[in-house]
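Project standup — Tuesday

K.O.: blocked on the structure for the chain from last sprint. Re-posting the sequence here as requested.
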Amino acid sequence: GLKWTAAGGWPFDIANVRTVSTTDANANHATVTAAIAAASVGDLILLDFESSAEAVTVNKAVTLIGLARSGTIFTSTMTVTAAATLVNIKVSKTGVSAAVGFAITASAVVELHNCEAVTNGSVTSRAIEVISVGGTIRVYGGYYEAQGAGTSLEVFTSGGASVTLLNTPVL
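H.V.: unblocked you, prediction finished:
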């Protein structure tokens, strides 16, 4: 199996672990999208300490773990359409009319652990947007802030999903 020991990385030797890095040639994938496409249900995807403009859609029941919330940063909305767990991931979406950090449309269990979303849209701004029929969204810790000239909501829900915030500041 792969042993990933990039600077600041964790050593793993597990068949269902995939690694993502644009700077470490030993990583399995250069993009999160490629890692998700190659993943099987239940796989663990480890994200290197870096920033990315990649627009990610999590469409499989996988776990994404960033090395550190302040260092695994996406500048595009992260969309979740399947049961998934996200850990230590930051989305910083600013400078657009409609800014959304995490867009969750899954009618399943989605968990955010120690994640962060900071959004600033000129018309609307939503740190977490949940639009699903059913589903359970659990947010454990982290930081969520929506700013902007128009309507700003840290957590927006529509469709009847259950959202639980545990030890989570929203500003």
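K.O.: great, moving the ticket to review. The two ends are 43 Å apart (CA to CA). The CA atoms of residues 4 and 11 lie 5 Å apart.
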